[in-house]
Design brief:
about 280 residues; alpha/beta; Rossmann fold; eight-stranded mixed beta sheet; three-stranded antiparallel beta sheet
């Protein structure tokens, strides 16, 4: 059973929200994708509860994290948030890390600054692209979509029903979608609910996605699985290069999943995570 949220000081006057998702065993920390939050991974954590003690982190600009006005959404800051959370819960103990998209990049960037922080990592399409690529511009599809995202719904149920009716969220397991909505929206005084990660914030995160981590992959020595989906999108295209660049990287291909794969089949993803960590930590 999940425990009360802790707020952990990070850099830039940020307070990270750290959620204890329960379980018994070695510590496993989830780092979320852009626009998501740490409690999206509750269904996966529940399936891992007999093998790992799981935590979810809300990085700056997401979920319940507290940030000052005007904070730049720099991805090295995301890594600093993750490192602060890991140190708060584990001290100097190395943990297992599961990172999705931006969260995968945050794990790699955090490990560069803290080489002994992670025992091993499971990275679903981490956003680590060569610096020769141009960062997303203001008029790019991801940025424009984020800026136009509908933020307010009549209720949590109305938000859930809207998301469940349209791709890509319509492909998500209903329990995972419920976790995304119930912890990703906040009630307003007029009875409506609003996204915690506002559209402008999500757009700013996308605009800062060139993080310099790709050129430093050779300095990351932890064992790491890099997962590639079959949807053919940019994150899937990055995955082979990331796996090749990591000294102890391994590419795993899940052709039947999309970039939202961790939420499409949480039970299967939990088994894949457990199998990899148990194999690499033996």
């Amino acid at each position: 059973m999940s425990q009360p949220t802790q707020f952990i000081p990070s850099t830039d006057d940020v307070e990270v929200a750290l959620h204890d998702l329960g379980g018994d065993g070695p510590i496993l920390v989830f780092a979320h994708a852009t626009g998501f939050h740490g409690r999206c991974y509750i269904p996966i954590a529940d399936a891992l509860a007999d093998r790992f003690h799981c935590y979810g982190v809300d990085l700056r600009g997401h979920g319940d994290a507290r940030i000052p006005d005007g904070l730049p959404m720099i991805w090295t800051g995301m890594a600093e948030d993750l490192a602060a959370a890991v140190k708060a819960v584990a001290g100097d103990e190395a943990v297992f890390g599961v990172g999705h998209s931006m969260g995968g990049a945050a794990i790699v960037l955090a490990s560069l600054a803290n080489p002994s922080m992670f025992r091993s990592a499971w990275l679903f399409e981490p956003i680590l692209a060569p610096s020769t690529m141009a960062p997303p511009a203001e008029e790019s599809g991801l940025v424009l979509s984020a800026r136009k995202r509908r933020e307010v719904f009549d209720s949590f149920d109305a938000a859930f029903e809207r998301y469940a009716s349209r791709p890509p969220f319509s492909m998500i397991d209903p329990v995972a979608l419920r976790a995304y909505v119930d912890h990703g929206f906040e009630p307003l005084d007029d009875g409506t609910v609003r996204l915690k990660c506002r559209g402008a914030t999500e757009a700013a995160v996308f605009e800062n996605s060139m993080n310099g981590g790709f050129e430093q992959l050779h300095n990351v020595n932890m064992p790491a699985a890099v997962i590639k989906s079959g949807d053919g999108g940019g994150p899937a295209l990055f995955a082979p290069g990331v796996a090749e660049g990591l000294p102890n990287g391994e590419l795993l291909i899940f052709d039947d999943l999309t970039h939202f794969g961790p939420f499409q089949d949480p039970a299967r993803i939990a088994e894949e995570i457990a199998s990899y960590f148990l194999a690499t930590d033996s």
